[in-house]
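Hi R.,

Here's the chain you asked about this morning:
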Amino acid sequence: MTQSRPDPVAAADAEVRQLAQALLRDCSHAALAWTDPETQTPGISRIAYGLDPQGFPLTLISALAPHSAALRAHPDCALMLGDPGAKGDPLTHPRLMIRAHARFVAADDPARAALRAHWLKGHPKAALYVDFADFAFVRLQPLSALLNAGFAKAYRLTPDDLCAPQP
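And the predicted structure, written out as tokens:
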């Protein structure tokens, strides 16, 4: 007979939402998990990361990167935000895993100019390549998330918990 244990992952409260939103706002890179379209096996890439003007996750990727073709074939993906601190056990530092759906922004999309200007505020070195024909902005629409805020501190978050309007 299997004994049922309580779910160790709690619902988000205001403090948890604030921590998750700080990770979303303050990170400039992320780990992106994707599915290889040829082998159907997982892959992971480090990506430049930021928020669009509405506060939703955004990246800029080259068509030459393997995750570009992967996201076009299988738009469902996951992001990991948060870095270990300089001291202590890396697993005690907060990190946010977001399940998302990737949506490429077309080169002729009227919103691209505003995304470009906004992106360059947080990623000024991208000015060297942002206008190359093989680069595209990709919106990463959150579906759900898990915040691990340290030992025995795990929380479920909804898209509404994550994407607060930006000041």
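Strands lie at 9-11, 29-35, 42-48, 50-51, 57-62, 76-81, 95-104, 135-148, 154-157.

Let me know if you need anything else.
M.
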